[in-house]
Every structure is written in C-alpha cells, then in structure tokens.
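The instructor's notes for this session suggest beginning with a concrete chain rather than abstract definitions. Hand out the sequence below and ask the class to guess, before any prediction is shown, which regions might be ordered.
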Amino acid sequence: MKLAEIAAALSCTALTPADGVADIETVVASDGMSEILAFPSPGAVMLTGLTNIQSVRTAVVADVHAIVYVRGKQPAAPVLELARDKGIPVFTTKLGMFEACGILYVTGLKGAM
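After discussion, reveal the predicted structure:
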C-alpha cells in the first residue's frame, strides 16, 4: 500500500515530507518502543502515541519507513528535525490506536507478527 493511501485512510496530516517511501506492507503499533525493537518489521509504518525523540530513534533502528502519531499528538520541533534528517515521514491522526489499526487491517495491511 502506498504511504499516501495510508495517510488518506487515517485522515492524517503530514508533519514532514513523505518523498521516496516504498510500498508499506506491515504495521507495528505500540507506545512501548522496546516492543517495536523486540519484533522488528523492516519497511513497516509505526503507529504510536509516544512523541518524544526516542520514537524516531526507534524507527531508525527498526528500519520503520514512516511514523503515524495517534490521538492527535504533536511531536516537538527537535523530533521532527531528527525525522527529517533521517528521511522518515511523520504524520499525525486524531484517531486512537485501536481504530487506526482496525482501519489499516481492513485495507489489507498486516501486523508484524
């Protein structure tokens, strides 16, 4: 699935550029970054409510291709700056984690496990 299709399905607002991202086939969703790292899924989109700098660092280590912050959360400027530097597109949606995961599941995306 294209990242633009995911953003549209979740009514996302782009916070950083989304250029050059390949198709997304899996989703990882957690507010616990250790959980994302324990079950890596390269090329996934990550849904989280954790907006600190650690979320971007986790995305880099786990080779996540995009981050969607749920519940309308807005990361601070340094978080967005690091995401831009690392080439990771960042979005926000007003949807909760459960609803966002359900929408992406219905579209055909799979979980990491």
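Then share the key points. The mean pLDDT is 93. The longest strand covers residues 26-29.
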